[in-house]
Amino acid sequence: MRMTEMTAVELSAAIRAGQVTAVEAVEEMLAGIEERDALYNCYVTVDREGALAQAQAVQAQIEAGELTGPLAGVPVAVKDNLCTKGLRTTCASRMLENFVPTYTAEAVVNLRKAGAVILGKTNMDEFAMGSTTETSAYGVTRNPWNRKHVPGGSSGGSAAAVAAGECICALGSDTGGSIRQPAAYCGMVGMKPTYGTVSRYGLIAYGSSLDQIGPLTKDVRDCAAMLEAIASHDVKDSTSLQRQDTDFMAALTEDVQGMRIGIPNDYLGEGLDEDVRAAVLKAAEELAGRGAVVERFDLSLVEYAIPAYYTIAAAEASSNLERFDGIKYGHRTTDDAGLHSMYRKSRSEGFGEEVKRRIMLGSFVLSSGYYDAYYLKALRVKALIKKAFDEAFAKYDVILGPVAPTTAPRLGESLADPLKMYLGDIYTIAVNLAGLPAISLPCGKDRKGLPIGLQLIGDCFQEKKLIRAAYTYEKSRGPFGTAVGAEKRTAAGERTQADTGSFRASGEGQIAQCGMLRHGGKSGRPESEQSTEGTDRTDRTGGIPS
Predict the structure, then answer these.
(1) Going by C-beta distance under 8 Å and a sequence separation of 6 or more, which residues neighbour residue 3?
(2) Which of 189, 266, 413, 541 would bridge with 46, disulfide CB 3.0–4.6 Å?
(3) 398 pLDDT more than 90
(4) Of 12, 79, 346, 440, which residue is the catalytic one?
(5) CA 275, CA 213: separation in Å to the nearest integer?
(6) Domain range for residue 241?
(7) CATH number of the domain enclosing 155
């Protein structure tokens, strides 16, 4: 078995047993990035020299018996909104194109303590605002299952990197589903922990009351191992929780006997693709066959989650992004015609369209005369949504449903209609509003061969129940397969469906079925970093810019 095909736990065990070395593992990952990333564009920055140096140090610690954990020697990737000392952190924006932090995010520090080796920083939607990884200033990321489709977002680069074999596992951030949805689109496992479980120190904020860091992995065991490594109390984060139950790998047992699982009727209604519905219900049957008690119920207020979320998230984004003014740090215009003009031009040049849209929406709902009408009302709805979940968890251990209404849309479709893109978050955003944990794992493929994601939601601090249910289902389901070679199979399937007339180009409530959106015919990358497939990419993968 090639190292790219191993899980993190398997690879670490092989390294600790002396079958391979951490340096060899990193070299194989770097070779894969060199070979395939021009096709998928998963990375913004690859730290080749730094990764090899880390691998040598980790190997020495393993041989000395100082590193014995399940992530020792494992090459991982980090989303580009997590600060890394000495390695640029761009948030996939022109605004931070040359920003090199002087400190490292606590979650990344914890990964390094566990012996993981950081390969580089992955592509994302600009400032984590988007659901497709198409709003990046460094070009779109493509789904390894089919390059004509998006990988999801905003952590699409992390999910695609794992799926493409360009790292073993990765870190992402989840503000409204930005770990779970890309995991679903790319056939990976992704988890958003209870708010406060993982320190947000060093995470460049989008919505401070909603953001949470979590893992993207190949299977549930790796997910538990990564979450156990990054979870910690941190005095540098005022929202960090002091928990004593973070031994998440202890929950890896195949046992759902008597577990009460609820399926909201609201999650199976209008707008849900039939292939997704069938796969999710089949997964529920699998769990019921293993002894779980599965019931349908009504979860109120689902229709209010999207307006409440985008009001709160945009308001917090407007406040958090106020600091990027061209003075303290970030992009500064060269056309300096006075202080106020410099502010306007620096922000106009530095931010992309989606970020500007959300800043303006946030500024509007926080403005005098509209604060009570929109922002305070959204906060009240948030409290009601949390109450609805509390009532549901009084009866159920786990809530089961889809991650997204459809599988991964084609490139360009979602950006053509942002409102429809926002509606695609309907099943994920309520989890962030309520501060709950949730896990996404693959449960099947649609008729086009694209992965379908199953979402399991738990009450606060009940990650172990989620891991137990997900692990049981994963073992019952069997191997899911990989994205390697999937594109050829998918293309053949699409041709067959087109020939027979059975391919459904759009469905009731399906998200955005429109044409490609281009920006002046350019890729969207800074001019110094634009490239085409197969061209030299050393300017983008050489670590810290000069």
Answers:
(1) 11, 14, 20, 24, 25, 28, 29
(2) 541
(3) yes
(4) 79
(5) 30
(6) 74-301+384-491
(7) 3.90.1300.10
At 470-520, the pLDDT tens digits run 999 999 999 998 887 666 555 555 444 433 333 233 333 322 222 222 223
* Contact predicate 510/273, CB 8 Å: yes
Largest CA distance in the chain: 70
Of 24-33, 125-134, 321-330, 459-468, least confident by mean pLDDT is 321-330
- CA distance linking residue 267 with residue 257, whole number of Å: 24
What region, left, alpha or beta, does residue 399 occupy, with left being phi > 0 and alpha being psi -120 to 50 degrees? Answer: beta
In a domain, 509, yes or no: no
Which pLDDT does position 485 carry in this prediction? Answer: 65
Residue 235 per-residue DSSP state:
T
Residues 6+ apart with CB under 8 A from 471: 220, 221, 224, 251, 252, 253, 254
Q: Is residue 370 part of a domain?
A: no
Tell me how many domains the chain contains: 1
Token pair 């605004």 is at which residue? Answer: 95
DSSP state of 296: E
Q: Which residues pair with 261 in a beta bridge?
A: 294, 398
| Alpha carbon distance 13, 18 (integer Å) | 9
Apex CA 95: angle with CA 160 and CA 87, to 5°? 60
**Residue 531 domain-assigned (yes or no):** no
The C-alpha atoms of residue 243 and residue 231 are separated, in whole angstroms, by 9
Confidence of residue 528 (pLDDT cuts 50, 70, 90): very low
**Which of these, 154, 269, 459, lies nearest to 280 by C-alpha position?**
269
368 prior amide bond cis, ω within 30: no
Q: Are 74 and 168 in contact (CB under 8 A)?
A: yes
> Could you confirm whether 178 is annotated as catalytic?
yes
Is position 499 within any domain? no
**pLDDT at residue 523 in the model:** 35
Closest by alpha carbon to 494, among 453, 451, 450?
Answer: 450
- Residue 488's pLDDT is what? 58
From the candidates 93, 158, 173, 178, give the one annotated as an active-site residue.
Answer: 178
Active-site residue, selected from the candidate residues 12, 93, 131, 154 = 154
pLDDT tens-digit readout, 151-193: 999 999 999 999 999 999 999 999 999 999 999 999 999 999 9
Give the model's confidence band at 340: pLDDT under 50 very low, under 70 low, under 90 confident, else very high: confident
Q: Give the tens place of pLDDT for each residue, 276-314.
A: 999 999 999 999 999 999 999 999 888 899 999 999 999
Strand order from edge to edge, sheet including 169-174: 43-46, 117-122, 75-79, 169-174, 212-217, 189-192, 438-445, 451-458, 398-402, 260-264, 293-297
Share of residues in the chain with pLDDT > 70 (%):
89
